[in-house]
Structure formats: C-alpha cells, structure tokens
Amino acid sequence: MEAVIEPKTINYSQKIELPPSTEEVPPPAKGCCKRTGMFVGYAVHDASRNKCHFCLAFCSVFVVVLSILVVNTIVSVGPLVFLSLGQK
Question: Which of 27, 42, 72, 75 is least surrounded by Cβ atoms within 10 Å, i.e. has the fewest?
Fold first, then answer.
C-alpha cells in the first residue's frame, strides 16, 4: 500500500514579519543641495563597495555615448562627403 501525500493549504491572509534592516537609513534631506549631496554620498558609497560593477557600468555608458557621437557626426557630415565625391 502506497502512502498518500496530502497537499498543504496556503493561508494567504497570514502576514509575514520581516526582520529589521541592519543598515541605518538617514532621514530624507530637505533642499536641493542637501538632496544632491545625499544622492552623491549614496553613489560614492555604492561605487566603493562594488568597484567592478561601477567600472563595468561606466565603461558601457562611455562606449554607448561614444558610438552615438560617432554615428551623429557621420550622419551630419555624410552629405558633404558624398557631394565632394560626386563633384570629382
């Protein structure tokens, strides 16, 4: 005789208690300069913790911006190049 496994019922109304965070979050800053300083502080803190991720993100943004500049320059100078080639 085989054992029958009964499915467990899930109580969706049960609230889950999360443990408190170990990192202290400063209160929101007021004013434009204070908020900018807060964002810069968070960015520097995150970049110092994850140096590899920061370098990878910086390089990928640099490559994308550089390629957009090259394409934009080619498109803006393209008609002049074709016009000069057509006159020869």
Answer: 27
Whole-angstrom distance, CA of residue 69 vs CA of residue 21 = 44
- Residue among 49, 26, 23, 52 nearest 39 (CA): 26
CA nearest 39: which of 51, 48, 29?
Answer: 29
Question: What type of residue sits at position 22?
Answer: T
CB 38 within 8 A of CB 29: yes
* Encoded amino acid at 16, one letter: I
Asked if residue 35 lies in contact with residue 47, where contact means CB atoms within 8 angstroms, the answer is no
Residue with tokens 């994308």: 64
Q: What is the pLDDT of residues 59-86, one digit of tens each?
A: 999 999 999 999 999 999 888 888 888 8
Chain centre distance of CA 7: 41
